[in-house]
Write a structure and sequence with these properties.
Blueprint (H helix, E strand, L loop, with lengths): L1 H18 L12 E3 L6 H7 L4 H8 L11 E3 L2 E4 L6 H7 L4 H8 L11 E4 L5 E3 L2 E4 L1 H10 L8 E6 L13 H14 L10 E3 L5 E3 L13 H4 L2 E6 L12 H18 L8 E3 L34 H23 L1
Helix pairs in contact: 6-9, 9-10
């Protein structure tokens, strides 16, 4: 029997390496892969023993295109050490307790030192091109991605319609698809107009891909280097009162976008739709007749839709949030 034991053990170890191509480095592995020149999703999937579809849904990828420097969550093998819990491991490696238990066939949360666990990243909530997330998930998604076009202007809009009365707590994707259909079939645009959508419950959706400039009546000058944020609701005075959850999300994601693209909050970096003539597409700021501009993002949007309202109310909130986020990143 001894003659066959050592080769059999070696065969088992080889099979384990084959099944899980990338093993843990001690007890502190990384599950973030940085894309290099020549990388493809099939090659990365093969390297980490996963699938292209799994890579896309765990990283919120709207296409198969990769860019150098982009970061991807990938599955890894992890060796349990003293003091580990599933909560701790899942938090560290962007997974979930249920995912770890299911992947490794665990019937309880009890762990033993030295046990090897396969840790797979948690899946993002996606339907088609749309990625629905909370603001923290948006932070990871944004900071992990690279983009092909210059972005220097963040646009703030409100939908006006649909408004709060159309949001039922779980119909995020239905609302997005409805806006997409309207923008394509009624407005003649190529896709949903906005890159980002925020909801009354504080959720945020990546909508139109960031590498494609937004469309809409704000005009080509504002769109060509713009990122459009469409905030669900009618924020003209006397209509929807913005929830605290949506307020926090709008400030938070605007701050993140400023950090990502190296912007300082000002009228030249964060713009309101109200400041653009919808006939000429030119920026008019506060100098226009009412019939030449829209009230968007609302006369009640963070104190109003004028440049003074932005300077006195919105920009300071964004600047403070930028400081908080940057401090947490270091």
């Amino acid at each position: 029997m001894k003659k066959f034991f050592v080769p059999l053990l070696s065969l088992i170890l080889i099979m384990q390496v084959t099944i899980f191509p990338v093993l843990a480095a001690g007890n502190n592995p990384t599950n973030i892969y940085v894309v290099k020149a020549g990388d493809t999703l099939p090659a990365i999937a093969n390297k980490y023993g996963t699938s292209v579809e799994e890579l896309k849904v765990t990283n919120g990828l709207q296409s198969d295109t990769l860019l150098v420097g982009q970061k991807l969550w990938v599955p890894i093998m992890y060796e349990v050490v003293a003091g580990d819990t599933l909560d701790k491991i899942s938090s560290t490696y962007n997974s979930s307790v249920d995912t770890i238990k299911s992947t490794n066939g665990l019937s309880s949360e009890q762990l033993y030192t030295g046990k090897m666990l396969k840790i797979t990243p948690k899946r993002m909530t996606m339907q088609g091109q749309y990625i629905l997330m909370n603001k923290e998930e948006f932070k990871n998604w944004l900071l992990h991605n690279e983009f092909t076009r210059k972005i220097s202007l963040i646009q703030q809009h409100h939908t006006w319609l649909p408004s709060y009365k159309n949001f039922h707590g779980s119909n995020h994707f239905t609302m997005l698809k409805g806006m997409e259909n309207y923008h394509i079939n009624k407005k003649g645009w190529k896709n949903i107009a906005q890159n980002i959508t925020t909801f009354p419950d504080g959720k945020v959706a990546i909508s139109r891909p960031f590498n494609i400039a937004p469309e809409g009546s704000i005009g080509l000058k504002a769109n060509i280097e713009g990122i459009a944020i469409e905030n669900i609701g009618n924020f003209d005075i006397g209509h929807d009162v913005m929830t605290e959850e949506q307020k926090e999300t709008i400030v938070y994601i605007t701050a993140l976008l400023c950090i990502k693209f190296g912007l300082t909050p000002s009228i030249d970096s964060i713009t309101y739709h109200h400041w653009w003539n919808y006939n000429t597409g030119q920026r008019v700021l506060d100098n226009s007749a009412e019939y030449e501009v829209k009230t968007c993002p609302g006369t009640g949007f963070f104190g109003g839709n004028s440049t003074n309202s932005a300077k006195n109310h919105f920009y300071p909130l964004v600047s403070r949030k930028m400081q908080e986020i940057e401090a947490s990143l270091h």
